[in-house]
Amino acid sequence: MDQTANAPDRIAAELAADLDAGFAALFAAYQNVLFSTALRICGRWADAEDLTAAAFLRAFRALSGYDRERIASLRIRPWLLTILLNAWRNQVRTAARRPREMLDAELPDLEARGASAEAQAERHETSRELAGTRYLASDTTGVVCFPSCRNARRITPAHRHGFASLAAAGRAGFRPCLHCQPA
Length: 183
Ligand SMILES: [Zn+2]
Prior knowledge:
binds zinc ion, DNA Methylphosphotriester Repair Domain, alpha+beta, 9 helices, 7% strand, 183 residues, 4 strands, four-stranded mixed sheet, disordered N terminus, globular
């Protein structure tokens, strides 16, 4: 399932050969790692999606400025995680509602943050189930949506899966749609 462990060199080589094609491979291989890390840091699904998107954007911009030799020698996973943390620090710094001193308090404590993120997700799931909300997922795209999303309406019945909760969809391996951002 986790193909990142044995594939970093292949992806660095693909990036060095063709940045656009290589970046698509990088995104496919690392989006789950970055998103789950982002969720641990942020604690909220929507914030984690924003942070993951910001990190990939930063990564692409950085790669665009690197020469091939530098790209080929990158250790992709730690490099991406560093970018993610920098993007998060930047978001925290620019969020006026959050005091700067929280940065130092939160950074060394990612595990504890992860536990609270899970608790928060559980509460969220429970309230959704009580409200009777349903989600639709496609096994061709691996994405789960609100039923009102344009992507959800494109799912053919043969590939459609219904879920009572986003967490259940996540456990089944579906990731949230970037368009409707189910939460
Ligand atoms: Zn959607």
